[in-house]
Specification:
185 residues, mainly alpha, Arc Repressor Mutant, subunit A, 2 domains, 9 helices, RNA_pol_sigma_r2
Length: 185
């Protein structure tokens, strides 16, 4: 086992104990590889980014199940592929379910929100904002900068004076905590 492989094994072991620096190191090391892989598959930056975030989220949640007889990057790519396949299946299923009626055609022809749609959106946004307020302030800030101010990771990193990978991990963690809050609601 060479030195870099030994170092990676140490980092993975630290991540298994919940070490945030180890998580950040793994994210830093493999982000571009997973993102590039998904960008080639999806040809869509937003989908590639979403899948990459989901990949690391799932990998970090399940890091205890990682089998060191496989390369870590192979394990990440396998998770990433499965998330992409699930996303494609869900989109196909949604299209098939809606194509059975003329509603799909109506939605394409008139995508302007109805009064009811606007009301539901406002109510959902109010609930979401209340849920975001339950997060710690540094998680609230990163969520607001990314999704309400629509800032890039680089811009957020500059605004917060933090490395971009810290912003990515913080956003990943914030989204996970927010999802847990929403599920409890």
């Amino acid at each position: 086992m060479d030195n870099s492989a030994h170092n990676l094994a140490d980092i993975i072991e630290k991540a298994k104990t919940g070490n945030q620096i180890a998580f950040s190191t793994l994210l830093d090391t493999y982000w571009n590889m997973v993102y590039g892989f998904q960008l080639k598959r999806t040809h869509n930056e937003n989908d590639a980014e979403d899948i990459t975030i989901q990949t690391f989220s799932k990998a970090f949640d399940k890091i205890a199940t990682y089998d060191s007889s496989y390369e870590f990057k192979t394990w990440l790519i396998a998770i990433s592929k499965n998330i992409h396949i699930d996303m494609v299946r869900k989109r196909k299923r949604d299209i098939l379910e809606s194509s059975g009626t003329n509603d799909a055609v109506k939605k394409v022809l008139d995508d302007a929100p109805t009064v009811e749609d606007r009301l539901i959106t406002e109510q959902n946004l109010a609930h979401l904002l209340r849920d975001i307020e339950k997060l710690k302030p540094h998680y609230q800030e990163v969520i607001n900068l990314r999704y309400f101010n629509e800032m890039s990771y680089a811009d957020i990193a500059a605004e917060l004076n933090e490395p971009m990978n810290n912003v990515k991990v913080k956003l990943l963690r914030a989204k996970k905590l927010l999802a847990e809050i929403i599920k409890k609601r």
